[in-house]
Structures are given as C-alpha cells and as structure tokens.
Hints:
The chain is an alpha/beta fold. It has 6 helices and 5 strands; from the N terminus they run E-H-E-H-H-E-H-E-H-E-H. The chain has a 5-stranded parallel β-sheet, with helices on both faces.
Amino acid sequence: MLKVYLSGEIHTDWREQIIEGAKGLDVSFSAPVTDHAASDDCGVAILGEEPNKYWHDHKGAMVNAIRTRKGITDADVVVVRFGEKYKQWNAAFDAGYAAALGKSLIILHQDDHQHALKEVDAAALAVCKEPHQVAEILRYVLNGTLPA
C-alpha cells in the first residue's frame, strides 16, 4: 500500500478529486484537518482559552504540528497544493519538511505561482497543475500504466 499525505490549500475539493481519481489503487490517504475553524481553534479548545491572539494561534499550530509531522513522516508520497487565493506559508513549510525527510514530493499549483515556488518546485519529483495528474502519477507508480 502506498501512503499519501495531502497537504496544503483547504478551500477547494482537490483532495476529493485525487482520492476519486485513485479509486481502485492500493493507496491510503491522510491529510491535515481541513475544517478551517477547527484547525485554528484546536489548541484553545483542548488546552484552554488564550486572551492573546498570538498564543491562541500558537497553541493551535503546535497541536496541528503533531498531526502534520506524523502524516508526513508516515507517508511514502507527500502532495502539497498551493491554491490561488491565499498565501499558504504552512504548505511551503510542509513541502520543505517532506523534502528534508527525503519524501517523494509532488507539488500542485497553477502557472501564476511558478516564480514564487521555484525553489519548492525544484525539490519536488513532479509539479502538477491539476489533481487528476497526481492521481495518474499514483497509478503509474503502482501499476506502471499510462493514462488511457
């Protein structure tokens, strides 16, 4: 079984598209919590309220890092999606962490991010524009078959 961690942008259905495209393959997917409010508030919900927004965010980041580190460490392949609307510093961090661990890294973004992500792209084994391309890479890796 190939273990794939799906990191990055949480505002579109790209994860579902990859999972659907990989149906029938021996693949297990994991991901960060994609409920934005839950992800932001997990630290204070579990560890207690913080009046200062910095510490509120810091608690959430630390709790989320436990899940993220485990997901990336356990993965065979890490896919990181950079969306169109928001700057995803956490996605860049995840890509760097995965690269440092020697994980097979697939980056997913549109051409308008090409220059900004050139160093991230250089660390990747593949750079895709569309989720279906990621699914086709997974199919090729597992079965050695090309798209029909």
